[in-house]
Write a structure and sequence with these properties.
One of its GO terms (molecular function) is carbohydrate binding. Belongs to the bacterial solute-binding protein 2 family. It comes from Pseudomonas cavernae. This is LacI family transcriptional regulator. Strands 2-1-3-4-5-11 form a 6-stranded parallel sheet, with helices on both faces. About 50% of the residues are buried. The chain is built from 11 helices and 12 strands. It is about 40% helix and about 20% strand. Helix 2 packs parallel to helix 3, helix 5 packs parallel to helix 6 and helix 9 packs antiparallel against helix 11. It is globular and about 60 Å long. The protein is α/β, with parallel strands linked by helices. Helix 8 links the parallel strand 8 and strand 9. It has 2 domains: about 190 residues, Rossmann fold; about 140 residues, Response regulator (Rossmann fold, 3-Layer(aba) Sandwich), CATH 3.40.50.
Amino acid sequence: MIGCLLGVGGVHAASVVFLNPGRSNEVFWTSYSRFMQAAADSLGMELRILYAERDPHLMVRQAHQVLRGEQRPDYLLLVNEEYVGPEILRLAAHSGVKLFMVNSRLSADQQKSLGASREKYPNWIGSLVPNDEEAGYLMAKELIRVEQARSGKTPVELLAFSGVKSTPAAQRRELGLRKALAEHPEVRLRQMVQGEWKRQRAYEQAKVLLSRYPGVRLIWAANDEMAFGAMQALQERGGRPGHEVLFATLNNSPEVLQARIDGRVSVLVSGHFTLGGWAMVLLHDYDAGLDFALRGGKDRQDPLFMLLDPGQSKKLLQHVQQKGFNLDFRRFSAVGHPDMRDYQFSLRPLLD
């Protein structure tokens, strides 16, 4: 197995394969991978990343190759993207490889039939996910607050661009938006469309929607690519992002961080690109005999999302442009910190 390799100081180096559901040229998923690699390097772990290029069938084939091959890793990280988790769990059942889920765990229906981690599939050892509902809520609440501080006019019209309908992240961010709108009846959701995370698709949709609803003053977009697509459509109509129309969105690309700095994006939420790196910390500790289940539970939902102001966006931009993020991940590990009762994962270390 790959895990026979030696790490720092001749100690066993835990080996990990990550099935990245995104595209190999997709800014969010490549930055996600970079943060994971920084953690692996800092912790002395072996990491291999396979991109599924947004193809769930390819992801399953990659899992099959990893789990049935001769050079099997100690751990396989996966995302329950488009609900492929159960099939990969079944493939891994007798492989000797331990599974860990990030970003999206099993849906409620899937869990009814398959159980939770360490139950029907004991080699599925846990999960770490963000609170996507909270992210959608934060974006909407802050967008409404900024608009009210700016004009105080009511009612206010809003357009929303969600992601791929079958992805849990899109569904939960939508829930957060709707929760915020329920608290603000003065804000009217004119239409929500599935931009499928794509800039071009959101651009084409926004061209139609901005003509249909010329009074729109707020745009909520579940990721930055869709925000930029809608922004292009607005600019072609003579509008100015951050002036006639305010944008709220989510992610950590250099482009969106710069847009927050210069005011074209009025509300920015980020943080979940760090999930894979924090998962590496958990697996590092588990491999050292320090079960993360005893420090906050085997299935974690950590508050990684936070609102970024222009100054924080500038600091994060500096970090994402550095090769290794300049973090010592060992300080977040229970190894060497025997009194640690829980993990403190957040975006804060990148904003100091």
